[in-house]
Amino acid sequence: MEKRALRKIHDWLWEIPKSYRSDMRVPAHVYADEPMLDSMLHDRSLDQLVNVATLPGIRQWAIAMPDAHEGYGFPIGGIAAIDPAEGVISPGGIGYDINCGVRLLRSKHSADEIRDHLPTLVHSVAREIPSGVGRGGPLRLKKDDLDHILRDGATRAVEMGFGNASDLEAIESRGAIDGADPAHVSDHARGRGGDQLGTIGSGNHFVEIDRVDKIFDAEAAKALGIEVDRILILIHTGSRGLGHQVATDFLRVMVGSMQRYGITVPDRELACAPFRSPDGQRYFQAMAAAANFAFANRQVITAGIRRAWKHELNSDIDVIYDVAHNVAKLERHSVGEVLIHRKGATRAFPGQPVLIPGSMGTASYVLMGQQGSMEQSFGSSCHGAGRVMSRTRARSEVAAPELRARLQKLGIIAEAASNKGLVEEAPEAYKDVDAVVDIVHRAGVAKRVARLVPVGVIKG
Amino acid sequence: MIEIIEHTADIRLRVSGKSLQELFTEALRGTIGLLQPQKGARRVQRVVKVEAPDTTILLVDFLNEALSNAHANREAYDDAVFSSLTETSAIAQLTGNDALAFGEDVKAVTYHEAEVRRDPNGQWSTVLVYDL
């Protein structure tokens, strides 16, 4: 796409008009400053956004957040609100890692108080929480138990003894999306990920021990129990192999059934089915079940961190918030009920904490959703820094010993399942998270509350 | 033949073969190779059956079926014997070893950019993009 195809609306917002391509049903909105837009034009993010704008039933705009980069079907950092009566559901609008998301925990300690304990604390957390490729967890769930998790998410994890009922109040949708039906989660999916509850996995997933570095909004921070130097813990993971397989299973179903529904899309990864069709409903119910598995996963991981905290510091931790960034949900917005697809995008309802993990070695952010998100982005914000360097290039350009030394110099203790996993997530592989957050703040989508810097990293 | 091509978020392979069967077998080896399996000594075999509207979808679905089996059963396949392979259906026996561990996670083989083609010399090829 050429830059001249875009119309500048604000310093932080650009529009691709509906006239750009004859099959677009709505215009596309891109939240970015000019350097970010230039970066997006280097890959196919915006062509993919235009493809999203062609989906049957899409309302108002296809939206890209400032962390957008090329994905499959949808760009990562893409949002689409679709009329559930007339429109479609697309697994490509959610992604392979269903309910990949972030949870923020609050300790009772300052950075000074844990400084001497940090090496053993990091090691203790790493020991409690399995990480790495395909690693199973300590739980061996029988089919009925897994079905309960798939239906009731974090609620069931709490019933099983992983955490407190009060934790549920601090989780998006109280940790369970309505409509989940375990019957539509295949044996393949159960076999691939059913034993992975309580595990981080690999890739960009992690547990981080963070120090609050800066407060931008004292009142909002106080409401969340956050002050400068407070130690918080950030968890970033999703539905593991179970969710990957649910996505694979239904993408295959929809690639095969689109013709039957008379739907054509410009990219097979946008394969979709009418939301009200049997295929659409089965996928939604399976996707919700996988999302519930992810909420339960973060709940079980929280229990592991609590054990480590108790063991090392004899203190407890609280859940500040837990939010999904790869999910589809039915929500009511100004245009009526819509099926909102968020792929690498975070719900950002007014007054709701929005958690933005940065790259290892830079910073993460706590934001607060604003009214502007309801008016501009169907209650959605960005989800992270956004990748700019391939894993292959990161591996060839970053040496693990050098990266470890650099992190150590910054006062960060890193424990990783492999050197490869560590270097692939080096800070230079990501966009500048400060700049990404600045855009959503200026746009009135979500305001800055606090910036966190890591002091301990546990990676797959 | 398998060639790795740069991709911002994930990984992309260009795969080719002198026949459709060779293309599928090479793509299987490339896919399982991405998992970086630490192979055990036990030999394993598994039957995979796939049908699809066209050859590109057939290949991606075949590979995803192999990937699901590899993850679920902790197996690393290095060969496939096709009892049937047409442009829209495949029945194959995958053979390989048990996997003690995998060094890389591959969430899925995507349909993104995949297009099975046959050139005038009869060579089959496609690009495959993987979500890691």
Structural commentary:
The complex is a heterodimer of chains A (460) and B (132). Chain A is an alpha+beta fold and 460 residues long. Chain A has helices spanning 34-40, 45-52, 111-114, 118-128, 143-152, 154-159, 187-193, 218-223, 240-261, 278-313, 371-376, 391-397, 400-409, 419-424, 433-442, and strands spanning 7-10, 13-16, 28-31, 58-69, 76-82, 88-89, 101-110, 206-215, 230-237, 273-274, 318-324, 326-333, 336-343, 346-347, 353-356, 364-369, 380-381, 413-416, 446-459. In chain A, helix 5 crosses helix 10, helix 7 (187-193) packs antiparallel against helix 9 and helix 9 (240-261) packs antiparallel against helix 10 (278-313). Chain A is globular. With 132 residues, chain B is of the alpha+beta class. Chain B has a single domain (2-131), classed as Archease domain (Archease, Possible Chaperone, Chain: A, domain 1), CATH 3.55.10.10. In chain B, the strands form two sheets. In chain B, strands 1, 2, 6, 7 and 8 form a five-stranded antiparallel sheet that branches. In chain B, strand 4 (75-85) and strand 5 (89-102) form a beta hairpin. The radius of gyration of chain B is 14 Å and the shape is globular. Chains A and B meet through helix 7, helix 9 and helix 12 of A and helix 2 of B.
